[in-house]
Design goal:
Length: 432
């Protein structure tokens, strides 16, 4: 039986959800206009007044907000509540540039943790569970978000943070953790270490994992599920919209339900800004309709995905987003061809390789070069390595349309990730 954290909201009729969103949006636009001069200026420039926004149909009239705006307005420029009412600051991991800080009132924290509680419940979590949280704690939102959600659900919470992997496994065994929360790349590393330490899935009690904060493929999902003996659920979010829990996966594992009572999603054409219909791939844009301290309207995430309203077998009526295939700024353009690291990951795992790889791009004599180092496991070390490199290069060329140089490297020679994995080094940027 499917469990819900907030059945009323999660299974609400579309009409009722729209009504709720309309009401909240109107209120939120007014709140922002009155309290955030930065956004008021953007609205004035566009000639939009709060009274023009009467329902979600008017959403498209509002100006976008981008990461560049967040940097411009750093640190307090988008704050909509006095600092005396704020109780927390979190910050982005800075994967793609200067950090962004976000502010929370106590109510913002409550709603955020509630979203994480929905995700944990959708993964089967109850107060009988032991939830091991190995996302980083601190400024990064992963640890605090899932920690709060786990408390709300009533799980026995292990605030491990990331790192010290052997100790993670010892605790997992001794305290019989049933739910694991971390980045997918760290989950893969934990699985690998478990087996290296001589244990099998019979030695642990894990049943589910809640993995997010970075892109990961279906192939990676299957590989983690096998190595840890669990069902692996995706979770999505970003610091700008609170953190993890903006959307979460249910038992169907075909995309993540968006918590639409807090976040209204849109998909736009990243070049023109035009709103695209459901089913088309584009950039995800969020309007947060309940946040008090840091309420971003029409925030461009730069994450590329698809929205669908197809009925879900779990009974939730919340709209679903596909796994983001990567950010628009993760996309590499190599010899004129668009390449996402996730496409390379798909081929590697399909061909039986480990998800430990490094993509290096450079420009030599005005031509882009693509080098992919891929780690072998112990069995793969024997035989003709040159042959294997050739056939892997062919498989990748079939996927991408361009030829890489593949280097099979020794087991354990590629650095493991305890948080967000760094899989690409683009040296072309260094020359510019
Ligand atoms: P940073 O931008 O510094 O990485 P955050 O820690 O706020 O800051 O990361 C948010 C970003 O992480 C999202 O915009 C998205 O690109 C990525 N992300 C988060 N969850 C997922 C997920 N489940 N799948 C793919 N990407 C994700
Ligand atoms: Zn569902």
């Amino acid at each position: 039986m499917e469990r819900y954290w907030n059945e009323e909201i999660e299974t609400m009729s579309r009409e009722d959800m729209k009504k709720l969103q309309d009401e909240r949006l109107v209120k939120q636009v007014k709140h922002v206009y009155e309290n955030v001069p930065y956004y008021r200026n953007l609205m004035d420039e566009k000639g939009v007044k709060p009274e023009d926004i009467k329902s979600t149909e008017d959403l498209h009239k509002l100006p976008f907000l981008t990461k560049a705006d967040l940097r411009d307005a750093y640190p307090y420029g988008l704050l909509a509540k006095p600092l005396s009412e704020c109780v927390r600051i979190q910050s982005t991991s800075g994967t793609t540039g200067r950090r962004v800080v976000a502010f929370y009132t106590q109510n913002d924290i409550d709603l955020w943790e509630d979203c994480c509680a929905r995700a944990i419940t959708a993964a089967g979590g109850t107060n009988e569970d032991v939830c091991q949280v190995c996302y980083g704690y601190g400024l990064f939102t992963g640890g605090p978000g899932l920690n709060g959600g786990s408390h709300k659900v009533g799980c026995l919470t292990l605030p491990m943070s990331s790192g010290n992997t052997e100790r993670q496994i010892q605790f997992m065994i001794d305290l019989q953790s049933t739910i694991l929360c971390c980045t997918p790349s760290y989950a893969a590393y934990i699985g690998e270490t478990l087996h290296d330490m001589g244990y099998t899935t019979d030695d642990i009690k894990l049943k589910a994992g809640i993995f997010g904060a970075e892109p990961w493929t279906e192939e990676m999902r299957r590989s983690i599920e096998k190595s840890l003996g669990i069902k692996a659920y995706d979770i999505y979010g970003l610091t700008e919209t609170s953190g993890p829990g903006v959307s979460f996966e249910c038992s169907e594992q075909t995309g993540m339900h968006i918590n639409e009572d807090h976040f209204i999603p849109e998909i736009i054409n990243p070049e023109t800004g035009e709103v695209l219909p459901d089913g088309e791939t584009g950039e995800l844009v969020f309007t947060s309709i309940t946040k008090e301290a840091f309420p971003l309207l029409r925030y461009r995430t730069r994450d590329l995905c698809v929205l669908t309203r197809k009925k879900c077998s779990c009974g939730r009526t919340l709209i679903k987003m596909s796994k983001p295939m990567g950010r628009s700024d993760d996309m590499l353009i190599i010899r004129g061809v668009n390449v996402f690291p996730s496409q390379i990951e798909t081929v590697l795992i399909e061909q039986g390789y480990t998800p430990n790889y490094l993509i290096e791009v450079d420009r030599v004599n005005n031509t882009d070069t693509l080098d992919i180092s891929v780690e072998m496991n112990l069995e793969q070390v024997s035989g003709d390595v040159k042959d294997k490199e050739k056939s892997l290069a062919v498989a990748i060329k079939t996927m991408l349309g361009i030829s890489p140089k593949v280097h099979l490297v020794a087991p354990k020679s590629i650095t493991r990730s305890e948080g967000k994995a760094v899989r690409v080094i683009d040296r072309r940027k260094l020359h510019d």
